[in-house]
Amino acid sequence: MAAEPRPADSDSTDWTFVIDQRCQQCGYVPHDVVTTARRLAQVPGRWVEVLQRDGATMRPSEGVWSPVEYACHSRDLITVLGDRVGAMLDSDRPTFANYDGEAEAVAGKFWAADPALVSEQIGDSMDRTLFIYGRVGEADWERVGLRGDGVEMTVAGLSRYLLHDLEHHLVDVDG
After folding, report:
1. Chain-centroid distance, C-alpha 136
2. Strand locations in 19-110 (E)
3. Angstrom distance (rounded) from CA 81 to CA 150
């Protein structure tokens, strides 16, 4: 069993800027939201390739997540943010609890995860989230949900945030 590493370096960036702006680190440009499901569907296969590499469980340096840790985080975001889109479709202005990915990584011992299992879980999570996106109609992109801090997010904004995060972490593990 893998020894518990020190926590990854903390990232205090407010990544919501990617809803409206290009990410200089990974090159993401806010996408046309009607392409969200098609682009999300490409993500699991890319993670399978990453997680089949030698060293997928090894951190590239102290304080930087390994590919399997990034994959676990991505898996969880697919589920959490997909569920949020579903809640926004099912109710008016739902409020969401804060999500702390770094705390989840420690609690879930992401560093010790089995890459093959995580690949499967990403696929399952994405299937569920794509089913939710299949319910998004043209008028639904502007439906609103509230983060725990009161910030409003639309389905469109949350979709951009999710796709950026997933694509950004794929750049992280290739970089």
Report:
1. 19
2. none
3. 16
DSSP for 47-83, please give it. HHHHHTSTTTTS-SSTTS--HHHHHHHHHHHHHHHHH
**What's the gap between Cα 60 and its chain centre?**
20
Secondary structure of residue 131 in the 3-state scheme:
helix
Q: In 10 A of CB 24, how many CB atoms? A: 7
User: Up-side HSE of residue 131: CA atoms within 13 Å toward CB?
Assistant: 8
Phi, psi of 157 (to 5 degrees): -65, -45
Please, is 61 exposed, middle or buried when counting C-beta atoms within 10 Å of its C-beta (0-12, 13-18, 19+)?
exposed
Which parts of the chain register pLDDT below 70? 1-12, 175
Per the prediction, the chain carries an average pLDDT of 93
